[in-house]
Amino acid sequence: MHRRAALAAGLAAVCALPTARRGRAQVGGGWSPDRPVRFIVPFPPGGATDVWSRMVGEAMAVELGQPVVIENRSGAGGMVGAEAAAKAAPDGHTLLFTISPFIQSPVVFRRWPYQPLEDFNPVGKLGTTPLPFCIRPEIPARTLAEFVSFARGKDLSFGSYAAGSTGHAYAQLLSDIEKLGMTHVAYRGEAPMLTDILGGRIACGFHSMTAAGEYIRGGRLRPLACTGRNGIPSLPQVPTFVSLGYPATFATAGFIGLFAPARVPAAAQARLAEVFAGVVANGAFQRRLLEIDTIPGWLGPDAFRAEIAFQLKEWSDLAAAMNLTVDG
């Protein structure tokens, strides 16, 4: 089944499911949206973040009693959309659905159009996903070691779904460790990067299984290793970087989460978190996530805020050590 067809089937199944919280008293003190809720997604349609946002939005809409509208606003490593969300009315009707570049991009761009911890209130964390490092299949390499041997002395380019993202930093780190001298090409999201690697315009890069899994399983991309410590559920034969002896930095897991502008009413934040938690706890929804190699891992607002603070410090240290900066 093609990815789009699979996604459509998954969304239909999610919408038909009762959420875990139906019939309970509302934690949010009776707050409910009085018009459609908007998810700002700071990356283009077709990438993993867009797919996750639509899955979550469809499921939350059932319980909230209002549609969830996805607004894709890409640019500057996700900062354009995040800044728009930070400046939105803090009434619970505009939320930011995003991933790790939310905290990474300001560090490497060295400008802060928003403060992740001050300008947003976390609603909750959906989970994470391992990222496979993929090459074009015509490259004569079946293992990461073979790719390293092939790439030395060649002027190869690697892509990233956002300047300053995990995919950018980890590919650059691989290039630096192995002295490959690869050139970085930044994209405004995963979908255009995927188009270019399939079209032969770049040699390699980190992708999500959510967006690229169909092409990996179809042999149009070749995964050589992945981030994280536990591997890719549907591709257990793909080793992790740390299992191959690379630094523990490659084991760091990013996040997928939902945020509200700061000063959102406590009742609205609580209700949104309650509904989001119910969606993530649903067994059928979790199975759908695992089918696209996304690992459910709910964190509520306070625990998610603590994780964001930790990852922001960790990322700042890594960027400083690598002298990782982006002009723009």
TrEMBL record:
Transmembrane segments: none annotated. It comes from uncultured Acetobacteraceae bacterium. PANTHER family: BLR1237 PROTEIN, TRICARBOXYLATE-BINDING PROTEIN. This is BUG/TctC family periplasmic protein. It comes from the Bacteria. Belongs to the UPF0065 (bug) family.
